[in-house]
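Quick bug: HD domain-containing protein output formatted oddly.
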Amino acid sequence: MRKVTLEKLFTHPITQKYVGRSGMAHAIAVAEHAYSFSLKLNVNPDLAVKAGLLHDIGHYKWYRDGEWDYDLYKENDIHAIKGANRAHKLLIRSGEDPHAAKEIALAILLHTDSYLPDGELRLNSLQRVVTLADEADEEPGGNHHYRTIEYKDALTRICNLDKRIEDAHLQNLGCSG
Ligand SMILES: [Fe+2]
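Here's what came back:
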């Protein structure tokens, strides 16, 4: 049994506030994609889904005169940096293992290169999984941030991911059912 489940992170007010701001439907889809990619790339699925759920927790809404300003966002965005920090704090306060919290925070820090000067990032497998998962759910014009989902449906999908991770964990221990 994991000490920190995805459900525990999802229901936390910090997650609801900040992930809700950047799009809960997108965050859950990315967590699901991250789960699938983690199996293909042989990455710990627990770390992958947590990083997927929290990857955009650092987003800030850039507004000018009450309107979303994409140029302002592109110029000033540091959501991956802010997100890594915010997610790390949330994970540690929730009781996450410090090594796991660091791995997840780094995957969030490097899930996009949009805020970095030109150059090539050398991603490890977990960081690659989160990047691929995010790209898999992206829509033109950032529309993936505006899709909505009912809280109840979101929670059901989160609990499904928890269950799949727990089941896989039990199978690895040699338990069946
Ligand atoms: Fe994203």
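Actually, after a second look the formatting is fine. The chain is about 65% helix and 0% strand. Closing.
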